[in-house]
Each structure stands twice: as structure tokens, then as C-alpha cells.
Amino acid sequence: MTSLPSGTSTPAAPTLRIAFFGLGAVGSSLLICLAELAERDGVELEFLVVVLNTELARDALFHAERLFDRIDFLEVSDFAPVFALAGDHAARFAGIDLLVNAANPIFNLPMLELGLRLGAHTVDLASDMYDAETERSLTFAQYGLDHAFRAANRAALINLGISPGVTNFLVGLRLHELRSARRRDLRIESVDLYLLEDIDADEIVFSWSPLVALEELAARPRLLRDGRLQVLEPFSAAREHSFPHEVTATRQYPLYQEELLSLHRSFPEIDSIGIYTGGSEVELVKALFKLNLLSKRTLPQQSELTVEAMVRAILPGMNKPRRIEDYLREGVIRRAHFAASAEIRYTENVRNDRQSTIETVGVSYLRYRGLLNSPYAGATYISYPTAVGAAILTWHALAFLREDGGELRGVITGEDLAERLPRPRADAIRRDLVAWDIDLFESVRDATPV
Collapsing DSSP states into helix, strand and coil, what is residue 83? Predict the structure, then answer.
């Protein structure tokens, strides 16, 4: 390395420009976390935030107003003209490095297409699991643009968050390590991911959209068993799972979520993959389902109104950030715990016997009250780890390109990052998760029948 002449300063790194589509509960915390990471690493950031209501977007950042001087808010009535770069939008988006869909999965493909036009990387937080293409092919629609992103030497980071996202990354790290061990007789038999969403409060507080919760939990879940996708009845095939910091085991129910399709695509040799969820919020939706309150039947003498539609109309919506903060500060929310625990089961020959081993990797977010008096006050116990997980994975992917001279091309999931990032970068991700109060845990145990 050639040293700089005396009196010459290192050239300043170019400002990183990030455009957000939507800025709700997750998007606002994601923006704050990216800003904190940039300040720590000495990187200049500018944000362009495209929203339908600027006032609500500003309110979502009510404890992070110091960031307003680096945010350009763009209020529109429809995202479509923006995706098309109609009018003066082309000038507003000139020089954007990264696009983030923090709104709705239906905007993933338009955002990816815009990223290709701009030569920008993209990030989305979830996929539409029920769109026609995904239902037909069991492949996320974003993969339709994989070749184009590879050709453009740009990355489309998909399904980032805490789950999916960090879960894929942590499971991917371990599975890639097991693969690379090159032990001929080692066979990875199954991966089962268990999720905990539990809140103890004096009010009914939904940590995410009640409508989304109803749709996902009341839909027919799917599991991969013996290499075949099985479709189950809602809230059937329940299991028990013990999470760290929980006194008793939690009832878990199958859930059709992104990790199932993603891990199956990345590790097709694994015959059995399942996603399960449980906790107080899940039990509430289960009660509605068991009482037939999610029925498609029409009401007597009101043929235009179904039971489900009536329940959806009267369910409380998501509380605004200021109300969530008040609930936490006043003790209405007493305790909240999000956790994700993945069990990886494999067998191998040990001392002439076939031994079965279960390795567990996971995350736990229990320090919810710590958000009080922070820029994140008002986030839910789900939106905060989701946003932080997405921000940390995104930041280190960008740093790998910017600082390490690495290469990321095409559509990339959390387990892809686990394979492509060097180990020091993966370790830095783990340290940052803990620094932002997302605890990690892991264990190994002998599961051979006695």
C-alpha cells in the first residue's frame, strides 16, 4: 500500500443514498438503525422517503427528528408513477444506491425493476407467498429478475428481517458449515424453525397487522416432509417447544412462511423442513378460528356480509407508535418476548453406531422496555427486531461490497449471505445483533434414542 504524501487527507467516501418506499413501524426503525450504523462507521447517508402521507411518516420518527435534515420526504398518491420514473421522479432518484421496500410485498417486483433501471441494489422484507407464480412454482417471484441482476452486477436482497432474514442467515451459516465438513456419512435430515410471539398486556395489542395475522394463521399451512409438500388444516399437527427465558414449553402450530421455500431451494437435499409459531397472539387468532369467527358464511338476513368480514371490521388495528410507547411506559404492556429457534437434525456414523444430533441456533428479543427513551420508542416487540435484523444484514452486505471489494450479484437470501460473506463479516453481523439487544443462542445435543 502506498502512503499518502504528508499533509494529504484520505478522500472522503461518497455519500450513500437510500430510497425507502413506505415508512411504517418497521421502515422507521430500519431507517434509524441504518443511520446509527452509518454514524458508527463514519459513512454519510442521505434518505429519500416515498410515502402516501408525509405527516404519518414524520410521526413514525417522532423520537428521531434529528435525522430530518438528511431525509427528503416525497409524498405521492400512488407509487406507480414513481416506479415508472414519470415526470421529475427521474431527477429525484438520480444517484440512488439502494432501494428498500418497507411497504408491501406487492411492490417488490416494481421496485426491483426500478433498481435495474437505476443501477441500484434493492432490499425487501417479505414475499407474497400466495401470488400465482409462487403458488405454481414454489419459487419467489423476485427470482424472475435474477439473471437481469446478475448481468447488471447488482444485488436484490430478499426476505430480510428477523424471520425471515436473520433466521435464514443463522441456519444457513450452520448448514453451509455442515456441508463443507465433507463427511461422507453425514446426512442432514430436517430443519424445524419455531417462533415465539408472546405479549403480556392489559389491552389487546397486536404487534403486527391483525389482518395479516388472520390471513397467515388461518390459511392452510404447509410443511416439507419426506421431500413432499404437505398441506395441513389450520392449527393442526401442533408441537411443544421450549424457548430460552420461558418457564414452560409453548404450543406451536405449523406456519407457511418464507423460510420454508427459501431453505428448500437452497438445500434441496434436506427432506423435511417445517416452520411453527406460537404464543399469546397466535392463541388469540386460534380462538377466533375455533369459534368459527373466521368463517366465510354469511350472516342471517345479511347475505352480503360474512362472519369473517364482520370480525375483521371490529378487530382493533395496529396502535400508533405514540400509543405503543404510552402502553409500555405506563405498564399496560408488562412483558413481551420474540424468539426464533431452529433445530437442525443430522445423523452420522460414530464408533460403529448411527448417531443422531440436534443443533439449535436462534435469537431472542426480551429487552423491550429498553426502547423507552431511545429513538425506537414506539416500535413493537416484533417491528424492532425485524427492522434491526434487516438493517444489520443490509449494512454488512453493502460494507462487503464497499470496503472488502466483494461481489454480490443476483437475487440473494439470508442463507446466500451466510455462504458468500467471509467469516469475519459474518461474525460482525452476530456482534451487531447482540449490540442492538438481539441475543443469540446455540446448543448441540445427542438425540440418539436410548
Answer: helix
CA quadruple 213, 219, 220, 226: dihedral positive or negative? negative
424 SS3 class: helix
3-state secondary structure at position 220: coil
What integer best gives the mean pLDDT of the chain? 91
Query: Quick one: fold of 16-157?
Result: Rossmann fold (3.40.50)
The amino acid occupying position 276 is Y
**The predicted structure's pLDDT at residue 43:** 96
SS3 label, residue 126: coil
One-character DSSP codes across 259-298 = HHHHHHHH-TT--EEEEEEESHHHHHHHHHHHTTTT--PE
Determine whether 363 is exposed, middle or buried from the number of CB atoms within 10 Å of its CB (0-12, 13-18, 19+): buried
Task: Return residue ranges of the chain for CATH 3.40.50.720.
Answer: 16-157
Question: What pTM did the predictor assign?
Answer: 0.93
* Whether the predicted pLDDT of 182 surpasses 80: no
Sign of CA dihedral 310, 313, 314, 318: positive
Every domain of the chain with CATH number 3.30.360.10 lies at: 162-378+416-446
SS3 225: strand
C-alpha cell at position 409: 450479484
Residue in this structure with the C-alpha cell 445435543, named with its chain if needed: 445
Residue 9 pLDDT > 70:
no
- Cβ–Cβ under 8 Å, residues 412 and 420: yes
Q: What is the grid cell recorded at 288?
A: 377466533
Correct CATH for 162-378+416-446 of 3.40.50.920, 3.30.360.10, 3.40.50.10860, 1.20.210.10? 3.30.360.10
pLDDT of res. 317 = 66
CB 339 within 8 A of CB 195: yes
Residues 284-339: pLDDT tens digits? Answer: 888 888 887 767 777 777 777 787 777 777 776 677 889 999 999 999 999 999 99
CA 63 to chain centre: 23
Q: Rounded distance, CA 257 to CA 342, Å? A: 14
In the block, which residue shows the cell 400509543? Answer: 323
Q: Which three cell numbers stand for residue 73?
A: 420526504
Could you read off the pLDDT of 138-164 as tens digits, one per residue? 899 999 999 999 999 999 999 999 999
Is 417:393 a contact under the CB 8 Å cutoff? yes
